[in-house]
Amino acid sequence: MPDPVFFRPARTFTVAEIAALVKGRVAAGDPEAVITGVAPLSEAGEGQLTFLDNPRYLADFRATRATACICGTKYAAQAPEGVAMIVAASPYRASAMVVQALFPDATRLTGAFGNSGIHPAAVVHPDARLEDGVCVEPGAVIGPRAEIGSGTVICANAVIGHDVRIGRDGYVGAGATVMFALVGNRVIIHPGVRIGQDGFGFAMGPSGHMKVPQIGRVAIQDDVEIGANTTIDRGANRDTIIGEGTKIDNGVQIGHNVVVGRHCVIVSQSGISGSSTLGDFVALGGQAGISGHLRIGTGAQVAGNSGVASDIPAGEKWGGSPAMPLRQWMKGVRTLRKLAAKAVGDGDSD
Questions:
Q1: 281-293 pLDDT, tens per residue?
Q2: Order of strands, edge to edge, in the sheet holding 225-226?
């Protein structure tokens, strides 16, 4: 059985062309060498481009057999002989630019079925409004008065609820559900995402827990990406908002009334409790938990596996559980390690 290749290069590039693309310079090697693909440092061979951004991989860098490598100025002199060196300000970002140019299909998502137009096995309510150029795959359901812009792909078995608005050039993955939501342009919603379901709201009491109706919406601005199986609850009495350019990993939970600012990064298995607000450019590490009704300031960063129970000022780095400023947390960790080592030492001497 032949081994399938899902992404093939759209064209080739010379080393000089790549340097121009990433606004870098050729520091060594043949600028006319041809690049046909990309690979990691340890696996790259003839015709392939690689990059070095993390000093942990210096040993692989010094031994690489790639045709060309993108790196920073301080590492260029350590490259093996015969490897063309492209010096760029941000090697990782530069590498991403090259991969986008070589494999444009990897960022232009299509449905599993690969059709265009509205498939006969899709169910589109007669009152829904779809612009020309919308693709709807088999099994997808689009409810009454929903509106979807041109260039958007609705994949197999996705469900778009009544009155939902989705902008242009978007993507809704297989089996995703989008309800009670307003979605901007160029939004990527990966398979299994749940948007707009009830927020978790109950008025608790001795006679039982009374359900609080969730009458808000979810508003997702332009250029947001939402990873597989993430859930975003609609607001209770106002909108849950995801700001422009924010990137959300797989398996994230965002509660009702949450406001996420622009260009935030939220890593897998993080959870944001109801009515908390994240400023612009906030970064949450994997499995970070944010309690309800908190404010995380613009540019703040939260380490993975942290539990945040108080507001975080803009620009600060916090970690730990309960979370605290990073230096304070690390000092505490070092102190505990010393105490533990001393306790083990005392026990050995008894």
A1: 999 999 999 999 9
A2: 135-136, 153-154, 171-172, 188-189, 225-226, 247-248, 265-266, 283-284, 301-302, 317-319, 324-325
